[in-house]
Every structure is written in structure tokens, then in C-alpha cells.
Amino acid sequence: MDIGKFIAMIFIVLIHVLQRSLIGFTGKDGWGSIYFLMLGVPPFFFFSGMSYRLKKPLSPLGFLYDIVRRAFLYFVPFVWFIALRVWLYNQWPDFSKGWDELMLYPISGLWVCWILLWISLVVDIGLFISYICPKFKVAIVSLALVIGYVVLMIYRNRGIIETNHTIGYDYFMVYAPIFLVGYICGPYILKIKNIFIYIACLIVGSVALIPIAINNHEIIGVNFLEKSQWMMYLAALCSVLVYFGLINLVKKLKFSYVIAFLGQFTMEMYFLHLMLLKNWKTMHLGNNWVVFWVTVGLFLLCYVNTFGVILVTYYVPFLHFAMFGKHYSRYKFEDRIFGFVRDYCYSNGNIKKPLKVF
Question: Which of 91, 94, 218, 239 is the most buried (most CB within 10 A)?
């Protein structure tokens, strides 16, 4: 799953770079934009669903811990993004225009925070209910997602929820079904070992996605709910086929463990590359070679920026947590603190021998 997340982030960064370096990549003739979008975004939610399948039912204390952890994970970088954008681009007057104006900054990029928050909340409620009857965990969580989807869709069709709402209800309706498919499948489908199946899935998914992208290239994001909702889900399934092939082929490489390691930092990559690219306008470049080298340069700059920040935060206690809301450090005492809190909450306070924090 980490290998898949890393590959998906490559497509996401690539589409944002090409939007700024290649004329015609988006818009009337830009079907390549929607093609890369489908290869980059839906698989993330599919993999998230697969990973949630491994989570056990939540005790009351574990449920509270998960809510607090998700709040830190999604909203610490969310706040940083707003603050840095205001500071870097000298947009201080926007603070006086109210909450909705400020929310226009991240809604075009950090909508992923809201959608992951809503999905996680619904799933955690399902896991909390399944604490009473753990044998039906999969059915209860799946039902919770379906109910959340149906309720929001009814509210939206009645005009109670606005399209492109600031806190991303629409995105829940776009990506929750993809998350649900990943949750039902679980990580077990990645254990198939036939290389011919990998190659067939890669070819079929890649080819099948082309006509979908060509016929729907002007439909991006939540606009699928307006025009071609089921086409969006079909495109997502095609992209999942592509990744099933890609992941299993990459796993055979000797350095696949490096790719898997880097795949753990896709959230950091997402936030930091937006800071580099979101305010850059489309460049009118003269020829194909200029486009190529500018694209390569911007692409590498995004990754160098991210790895540099990850490296620095690794050697400063609690800095990674302060910037990205999750623990990543070389210091054992930090690992013990977070590990003790996690184990204590997930065991509902039933740790017989508490760890020595220091």
C-alpha cells in the first residue's frame, strides 16, 4: 500500500506541475489532465480503505484517541498552510474578510483534509459500534459509510448542502464509495502472485481509462456529481486495476523497500508541494524542450523540498509532530511517549506494565 501511495503522489505532483508548464494540458483539449487525476487521486482513498480494514473495533477510550489523533493529523498542516500562504504571498488583508475567504486558500488543494476527516469519523463510529459485536465489524463499518453517503446525497439534492461547500461534504460523496470498495477488498487482494495477472490489469486499466478521460476531460473533482457521477466511479476502478499491476511489479525491484518507505510521507509531500506550486500561474513556454526541462525541474524541486523538510524534522524533537500532526523522530523518548499513549488508549487503559517514558 505504501508503494501505491508513492506512485499516486508522483501522478498528483506531475499533474500540478504540467498544469503550470504545458499549454492546453487542462481545459477543452486537456484530457491528459483528467487521466493523470484519475491515476493520482482515487487510489489514495482505495488504499486508505484497505488499511482501515486492518483496524480493530474501538473501545470508548480508543475511539476518543482516534478522534484527537485525526484532528492533529489533518488540521495541524491545514493551519500551517493558511498561515504560510498569507505570509509568503502577503495576503494579510484577507484575515479581515472572514472565515469563508480564508477557506478559499485550502479548499482548492487541502480539501483532502476535510474528506479524510469525514470518512475517518464515519468509519470510527462504525468501529466503535462494532466494539459490542466485533464479528460484524466489516458489515457495520460498510453500513455506516453507506448511510453517511445517502444522507449527504439527500441533503445535497434538496439544496441543504451547497455544491463545493467550504468543508468538503461533496468530496465525501465523490470518494467515500471508492474508500468503501477498498475497505471491503482489504489488503488481501495484493497477495496474488501471478505476474501475468499484474500485466493484464495494468494494460486493461490504462487503456480503459483513456476513453473515459477523453469524454469527461472537462469534469474535475466534485463536478462529477453534477454530470457524470458513475463515470467517475468507473474511472476509479480502472485506476485501481492499474495500481494492482504497478504495485506488484514494483515489489519485485530490489529497491522497492525504499519506495515503500517514502510512501509513508505522501501527506507531507502533498502539503509541501502545494506551497511551491499553488500560486504559480501557467507559464507560456516556447518549445517542447523548454517545457520538458521546466517540468522536470519543478517536479524534482517538489521532492527535494519535501525530503529536506523530512530530514530536518527527523533530528529535532517533536518538530515533525508540530508541522504535520504525526510522530516521526530519531529520539526514543518521543517514540515511547506516543507509543504509550496509543497503547494505553487502544487497550482501554488496561496496560499492566506501563512503559517508562524517560
Answer: 239
Helix/strand/coil (H/E/C) assignment for every residue in the chain: CHHHHHHHHHHHHHHHHHHHHCCCCCCCCCHHHHHHHHHHCHHHHHHHHHHHCCCCCCCHHHHHHHHHHHHHHHHHHHHHHHHHHHHHCCCHHHHHHCHHHHHHHHHCCCHHHHHHHHHHHHHHHHHHHCCCCHHHHHHHHHHHHHHHHHHHHHHHHCCCCCCCCCCCHHHHHHHHHHHHHHHHHCHHHHHCCCHHHHHHHHHHHHHHHHHHHHHCCCCCCCHHHHHCHHHHHHHHHHHHHHHHHHHHHHCCCCCHHHHHHHHHHHHHHHHHHHHHHCCCCCCCCCCHHHHHHHHHHHHHHHHHHHHHHHHHHHCCCCHHHHHHCCCCCCCHHHHHHHHHHHHHHHCCCCCCCCCCCC
Examine the pLDDT at 281 and tell me if it is beyond 70: no
Contact between 62 and 248 under an 8 Å Cβ cutoff? The reply is no
Lowest-pLDDT range of 106-120, 170-184, 279-293? 279-293
Buried b (16+ CB within 10 A) or exposed e, 82-109: bebbbeeeebeeeeeeeeeebbebbbeb
pLDDT in tens, 174-184: 888 889 999 99
The count of other CB atoms within 10 Å of the CB of residue 81 is: 20
pLDDT at 91: 66
The reported pLDDT for the residue numbered 297 is 84
Q: Which pTM was predicted?
A: 0.84
Confidence of residue 165 (pLDDT cuts 50, 70, 90): low
HSE of 137 in the Cβ direction (CA atoms, 13 Å)? 16
Q: Residue 257 has which C-alpha cell?
A: 523497500
Could you tell me the sign of the dihedral formed by the alpha carbons of 292, 296, 299, 305, in that order?
Answer: negative
Residues 6+ apart with CB under 8 A from 227: 216, 219
